[in-house]
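Final report, closing paragraph on structural work. Over the funding period we assembled a curated collection of sequence-structure pairs, and we close with a single example.
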Amino acid sequence: MIVMEESLKKIKQQLHEAGFKLTPQREVTVKILLENEKDHLSAEEIYMQVKNQHAEIGLATVYRTLEILTDLQIVNKISFQDGLARYDLNRDGARHFHHHLLCIQCGNIEEVHEDMLDEIEKEVEKKFNFFVKDHRLTFHGICSDCQEKAKKS
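Its predicted structure, as stored:
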C-alpha cells in the first residue's frame, strides 16, 4: 500500500506541475490503474471498475482523465491485436517504454522491463542520423501456459 501511496503522490505532483489538480474523479481512475498495473486495461474496463466504486463518475470523465495522463506521459496508450486502446503506467526511472510479450492464442500480455535494444538504437542513430527518443516493441508468440496445454493435448 505504501508503494501505491508513493505513486499516487508522484502522479499528483506531475499533474500539479502541468497545471492540473488530482480531483476525486481523477484519483479514483489513477488508483484503478495502480491496482491493475499489470493488466493493461482498456478505458471501458477502467470505467467499469471506477463505476463499481463511484457510480456518479461517467465514462467521459474517465476518457478525459486518461487523455490527460497520456499527454503528460504518466501512462502510455497502447494497442494490441484486439484493436482496443489499453493503458499502461510508466515505471519510475525507465528510460524507455517497456516491451510486451503477446500470446496469440490466449491473449495474455507479459511485460519485459529489460531494455535490450541499446545497440540497435545506436546503429539506427548512426546509420540514419536519427535521434531515438523511445521505442515500443511487442513480441507475438505463444506463452508457456499455452505451450504446456498443447503438449498435453
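The longest strand covers residues 75-79. The chain has two domains: 1-91, 94-153. We thank the funder for supporting this effort.
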